[in-house]
User: What shape does this take?
Amino acid sequence: MACKEEKEFLTANPGEIVLDVRADNYSLNGRVLGRTASDFSDDDLLIEHFDKELKKAQENLGEEVLQMLTGVENPVKRQQIFNDYPLVKIHYDNNVTYDVFYKSYSTISFHFHSFQLAFGSNYKDICKLHKPHESYVLYSHVCKKMIDARISDRIFRTKQFRSMLMNHEITNDDLRWCAAADTALSLTVYRKDGKLAYLINWNENGQPDGYRMDSFPNDFCFCEFMGKMAGRRNRVTLRVLDDILLEDFAPVIKKLNQYGYMIEFKSLSH
Assistant: This one.
């Protein structure tokens, strides 16, 4: 059964592309593109060789979807095709590091916005992810400065923070607006005493001074918190140490996906 599920997932049908990332190499629609260790070792977030191949695949997908629409006059069926395709399926091997995951996912996210992810040898429990819109308020200049300040200083009344406000002309109204709109949970996954630990930055009351940090030393406490917050928040910015293997951080992605969070992947080193 597992072999059948693997074959089905890794087969690119019309309107689909399949990216398979393993510790030794990575392939697109069954064709090996390069060595994982060397191609994803650069500091650049955009992997140029991979990006060029994705552009070609994107053009072919557009033609395939148009062919699928040919002769379909029913507006409901046409809309369904638009909703379902193109379909991007990505498989990650258990021995892939977060750094490789992040760079490959970021590169393919330049071209596509919806994905089906399979991890390790499990091709049954598929994670369906959607790339957040670029217009999301946390991408704004003001909010980035707020986040940087709260991580480094935690307190908004420091001399350093007041200086930052003056240099970047960020007003108190900007801060209030941004804090009220900041509904995301900023999650960092790291190691502590040989195990995964979790640090969450979030705003509990929508005010500039409402930011807090909560740390969770084990999976149970972390999952309990995220389960409770799922009804109040729907967005997570996820950062993971570069060298943590997928077999360790994939359960975090699956759990967030299960709770219904929209996930924005970030890096601690880029």
About this structure: Residues 135-141, 151-157 have pLDDT under 50 and may be disordered. The chain has two domains: 2-130, 137-267. Residues 137-267 form a domain with the Nucleotidyltransferase; domain 5 fold (CATH 3.30.420). The two ends are 40 Å apart (CA to CA).
